[in-house]
């Protein structure tokens, strides 16, 4: 497939998991892909070698570095904001600094990255943020702060879709359910509990999520904007 031939693509948080699958998919479909990462240098180097994508070390929690990285890519066709942290636990016990860092990465960073990308983005561009079905449904205790961050993306996408719509730029949220990655392994301790909420009782794969991202980033999705796209095996049904 060549639907992204010569398209300028940036994936924020692409070294592992869903982000790495998005890098692989969009690069395989012809995109000129760059991706950022914070700590996983070996994984980033291996992915760059495998896909031909460019790896950039840049912590999304640092606004100035993030904005500089986005601006340095010039006129993007596609921005995928995937980076995310998951901090779970009793809100009375959680480290408030860890909660704040999660809010920095999951909420402040996608907002500033999206706005910066839009400054130079070509008309008809695509902004896709990876949210979570937990933005809609949080069926267990200990997830309030994470759910807060993912719900915030819903309002952000709806608003930015209005701001950038006149230029044909779409803004969408992809909301995975349990997906087999380092963050949420299919054989992890919470897997059976999660599957109990699902119509299809298995973790999704990162490649399945990347397929939905590729659709939204592609030419057939030009009228899809300000919307939430849940891919969760019925977790939220
Ligand atoms: P992983 O923890 O497996 O991978 C996270 C990726 O984000 C890594 O590439 C990591 O890079 C990058 N990242 C994290 N923090 C930063 C940062 N500060 N700056 C730059 N990059 C960063 O997570 P998943 O692939 O599972 O999750 C990806 C997204 O999908 C997240 O937003 C998550 O909330 C969401 N999601 C995941 C679900 C799941 O079940 N897996 C379900 C629903 C949503 P590095 O290793 O270099 O730090």
TrEMBL record:
Classification via Gene3D superfamilies: NAD(P)-binding Rossmann-like Domain (3.40.50.720)
Family note: Belongs to the short-chain dehydrogenases/reductases (SDR) family.
Lineage, top ranks: Bacteria, Pseudomonadati, Pseudomonadota, Alphaproteobacteria, Sphingomonadales
Species assigned in the record: Novosphingobium anseongense
Name the UniProt record assigns to this protein: SDR family oxidoreductase
CDD domains, alphabetized: SDR_c
Residue intervals of the Ketoreductase domain: 7-179
Highest taxon listed in the record's lineage: Bacteria
Stored NCBIfam families: PRK12742.1 (NF009383)
The gene coding this protein: bdcA
